[in-house]
Write a structure and sequence with these properties.
Length: 286
């Protein structure tokens, strides 16, 4: 496994793989790798003959009051895990390598970024799209993988790739869940055991929403209210949003009459946790 921290080393290694007619797969990450990342890396490994994992805590996707300075990381453990998973190349640049000068060029995907995390993190997706576009330009993967857990990020990146005719196929992997339903996240590292168990309320609220839709409820306010009650039972849970949006442009809808994304962000103690499910409208009975 090659560990590269410069763009030129990375381009050279990828060019060689391409000369050998290998399919280049990329899994972009910010490190602190967990089971969610591992499942994505396994898919990449299975479907591509040259698997690249990027590890870069991208400063431009954090607002000044967010957790950039304390974002968890364990580079040695990440490298060991990638080696065990059969990764061919880790690209782990410094911020100076990626942003050598004041960055004046940004990618903004409109509309899809208006709601959900876009409301409380207004510049977040601009930073995500810009770094992902840079990684695509540096590595030029044939296929890039993202987790369904970051559903809005996935939708935004898919749209960026389509609108800008980027020559890469974006694939997604389903959300992995621990026992009890907590979705792994690097930010779960901030939680103590009590907060971790209170974090299960996100999945409980989503499961209740799914049940209600299956039972025929289509009014989104009713479902959101039921989810809110579940979250508010937890003493240190603060809701950022609970939203039901169409699964294309992520616009809020009043009635579930097409596939929808039910998504929420909740602050539990020091960590802001997000989760989501996609739900089909209830089957019509004749
Ligand atoms: O999902 C993440 O870890 C990040 O947002 C990404 C896609 C690696 C861009 O920094």
């Amino acid at each position: 496994m090659i560990i590269a921290d410069t763009i030129s080393q990375t381009r050279k290694a990828v060019a060689q793989a391409r000369d050998e007619c290998k399919t280049i797969g990329l899994v972009p990450t910010m490190g602190a790798l967990h089971e969610g990342h591992f499942s994505i890396i396994r898919r990449c490994r299975e479907e591509c003959s040259f698997a690249v994992v990027s590890i870069f805590v991208n400063p431009t996707q954090f607002a000044p009051d967010e957790d950039l300075d304390k974002y968890p990381g364990n580079f040695e453990a990440d490298c060991r895990a990638c080696r065990d998973l059969g990764v061919d190349l880790i690209f782990a640049p410094t911020a100076a390598e990626i942003y050598p000068r004041e960055n004046l060029t940004w990618i903004n995907v409109e509309k899809i970024t208006d709601h959900l995390c876009g409301t409380s993190r207004p510049d977040h997706f601009r930073g995500v799209c810009t770094i992902v576009a840079k990684l695509f330009n540096i590595i030029q993967p044939d296929i890039a993988w993202f987790g369904q857990k970051d559903a809005q990020q996935l939708a935004v990146i898919r749209r960026m790739v389509a609108d800008l005719n980027m020559p890469v196929e974006v694939r997604s992997c389903p959300t992995v869940r621990e026992t009890g339903g907590l979705a792994p996240s690097s930010r779960n590292n901030y939680l103590n055991p009590g907060q971790r168990s209170r974090g299960l309320c996100l999945n409980q609220a989503l499961s209740r929403a799914r049940e209600m839709v299956t039972d025929g409820t289509t009014d989104t306010n009713t479902i959101i209210e039921a989810m809110r009650l579940i979250i508010e039972k937890q003493p240190d849970a603060h809701i950022d949003y609970i939203s039901i949006v169409d699964n294309d442009l992520l616009q809020p809808i009043a009635e579930i009459d097409r596939p929808v994304l039910i998504a929420l962000a909740v602050r539990i103690g020091p960590a802001r946790l997000i989760d989501n499910i996609i739900v089909e409208p209830p089957a019509k009975t004749l």
